[in-house]
Amino acid sequence: MCRNICLQSFYFGLYDSLKPILLGDDAGFLMSFCLGYGVTVGSGLTSYPLDTIRRRMMMTSGQAVKYNGSWDCAVQVLVRKEGFMSLMKEQVQTSSEEL
Hints:
The chain contains 4 helices and no strands. The chain has helices at 2-23, 29-59, 70-81, 91-97.
């Protein structure tokens, strides 16, 4: 749920804020589409780490690796083991699927 709040907030906030600034009132379909795609990819980038943490917690629920919550999972993955880029795995594929 937190991922969806983050995703939708960035999507609608950025699109509604940037459209009048970058495109003006008489924006064509192609330019509006390009702005929408850029905002979609950008909002996906901001919310993807939260989705990765959720998936990690679901995949390790029956194993010896346990997390005490999403914050503990993020700290273990980010600080102790793999680094920030492990949260962004497969983001290129996900971004290309949004098109």
